[in-house]
Design a protein that fits this description.
alpha/beta; Rossmann fold; eight-stranded mixed β-sheet; 9 helices
Amino acid sequence: MQSLQKELIDVETDGVSLEGMLTIPDGAAGMVLFAHGSGSSRLSPRNNYVADYLQQFRMGTLLIDLLTPHEDSNLSSRFDISLLSRRLNAACDWLQASEATAHLPVGLFGASTGAAAALQVAAMRGDGIVATVSRGGRPDLAGRSALRMVSTPTLLIVGGHDDIVIELNRQTYALLRCEKRLEIVRGATHLFEETGALEQVAALAADWFGLHLIGPKAVTAKT
């Protein structure tokens, strides 16, 4: 059975303390930092499902609340991409400063508005982020300037019945100048609640991070 080191951590930034759950499997070869969407948190069952899946392939994960409970009650804060990006960037700084994770390459997994924050941070940090995945995201909210600056290999995953978001992701895809891929999960809606849909998301993310974050053999050996 795989051994996991779990720790509840705090990231101090903007005068607030953000709680996160850090999980590091034995022999971890990379870290995936999750950027949650509007109205979501580190307790998101969908993101935790994906995180659990990634941990099987020597990927550590950090699921962190980008907003305080008070901020999350304010709709404007949920869609403040600059704020979310600043908080996510602070979490990246924390990973780089922590003795347990400083040596590990970092990838970003963003959902909904968190995808925009992830791409803004990828644009800011350049080679400091080695892979990015968006699930049902609004990467278009990152803005044209940031999207054109992204050099990180980026995977966009959208549900096949999420028509408006598909179009927004196609627009984003056209703007990205990095290595990129757009995957549409057939039969899935925005939250990937259909049978097998979230499993497909997790597998696609594991393949992408496996290729760019820790090397393809780490994933293919398990499949």
